[in-house]
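Chapter review. Work through the record for Succinate dehydrogenase hydrophobic membrane anchor subunit before attempting the end-of-chapter questions.
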Amino acid sequence: MTSLEIESPRSPYTRRKTTRSNYELYGWIFMRASGVLLLVLIFGHLFVNLMTGDGVHSIDFAFVGGKWANPFWQVWDLLMLWLAMLHGTNGVRTVINDYASKDGTRLVLKALLYFACVVVVVLGTLVIFTFNPCPPNAPAELLSQTVCFPS
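C-alpha cells for Succinate dehydrogenase hydrophobic membrane anchor subunit:
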C-alpha cells in the first residue's frame, strides 16, 4: 500500500504497544463513578445556591462566607472541585491519547494538562480552607451579619 492509499476499514487493528496494567480500565471505572458522584454534588450545590432562600439574588460575598464557615460545605465544595478536575483531566488525557499521534506531542500536552490540574486543585483547596469570611477593614455591609457579627 502506498502512502496515498486509505487503509481498508476491514483491516485488523494494531496496537501501538502492549501494556500489562489495568490503568485504562481503572480510568474508565473512575470516570463512571466520579460522574455519578459529581451529579449528586453539582445538583446539591445548585439546589442550595439557587432554590433555597432568595435564590440567585442572595449569592454574594456574605453568602459564600457564611457557607464556607461550615466545614460540611467546605468538604462538599472540595470534593466537587477535586472530582471535577480529576474527571476532566482524565477525559482530556483520553482525548490526547486518541488524537495526538506523535509521542513527543502527547508527552508535552499531557505534562501541560497535569500541571494545570495540579495548579487548579492546589489553589482551589487553598481558597476553600484559607477563606476568611470576615476580612479586616472590609465594609460591614458586605460581610455576613451572622458569621462576622453574631448577636
